[in-house]
Amino acid sequence: MYTQALSTERPAAVSGPAEDPALLARFQARIDAEERIEPMDWMPRAYRQTLIRQISQHAHSEIIGMQPEGNWLTRAPTLKRKLQLAAKIQDEAGHGLYLYSAAETLGVSREELVGQLLSGKAKYSSIFNYPTLTWADIGAIGWLVDGAAIMNQIPLCRCSYGPYARAMILICKEESFHQRQGYEIMMTLARGTPRQRAMAQDALNRWWWPSVMMFGPSDKDSIHSDQAMRWKIKRFTNDELRQKFVDATVPQAQYLGLSVPDPDLRFDAASQHWLTGPIDWDEFWRVVKGDGPCNKQRLELRRTVHADGAWVREAAEAFAEKRRARRQAKAA
Amino acid sequence: MTEKLWPLYEVFLRPRNGLAHKHVGSLHAADDEMALQNARDVYTRRGEAISIWVVPSKAIIASAPNEREALLEPSTEERKPYRHPTFYDIPDEVGHM
Q1: Nearest C-alpha neighbor of A5 from the set A229, A223, A291
Q2: Is the predicted ipTM greater than 0.85, yes or no?
Q3: N or C, which end of chain B is more exposed by having fewer CB within 10 Å?
């Protein structure tokens, strides 16, 4: 679904002997020439560390992102909606797995990455620390959260690191289905009874600002955006992407006949952009730092599910062992 | 029971007959058969393939990027232009060749 915390932390701490300036220069020249970097190529340690962190945070976000949606799976209003939601959740798991394997090409193990999520050391997108209170939230997540994710992910398809860019191409193809199914849920509710309309409006009210914040801190507060841009890991700044999202989404809300919960929102004729009111960055930092409505619950459930799934992994190993033994007996 | 680290497999898909299998990513599995099943679940949720290959990553023998020059440079067009049709001037009157 999405990666955001990316620019909320200090650049990855990298220690070790100084790197050869000639190699560094050649690496930057390759990036500047739009060459892709592949796993076995030489790369600066900081580039590797930044990518490991970004890709794994992105993977963790996909995995945790299954929870708010899974909350409504058994209560979907129709069988059709249930099948659609199950397919979407399955995609999130798939996206997590594509991304973990992309991160592993940088020399980090799957166990280490999963361990970082379970221990609480790793971050994931803070949007998933908000609760899904009604069915309309499933519509709002698909429309807004996946819509914001697409804005962020399309440029990542041209990221300088080959395996990450390729994983993003697979993911972007599937995200489009996510956004459209979400918007269709919103359309159905918006055209429904007054209570259904109110539900849709309530979901927009609660998900609008967290979605706008998904692009991360404003450019003037973003810590390591510049380096990521120089390395062409990032192609647009947080504020540029946020503006694209707002410009695309406001007319979609108008089409639904719903109002965006921002009294200061206005269309600026000169720049041809929708301008939002001030963003509550205190809330953003609170949620990033662990104080969102569901941070604790999300992590606890992830740990429980991991522990409860241990028997499945053990059974798979036992079965693999049995198959090997049988094959050996036959060969003997 | 302590969990073993499952080996890594590379996944290749053939989108349809007439096309070669193409690398799409990797995954972990307890054995070959499960790798194939996992590849089905992870990489083909939308009819992306009519055939799947999974290959243990450690079975792939790869050329090293720093040997590229010695290994592959000699065959580039700059070095051996005469291996390419455009190297040869054929008068237009001869027609398409």
Answers
A1: A223
A2: yes
A3: C
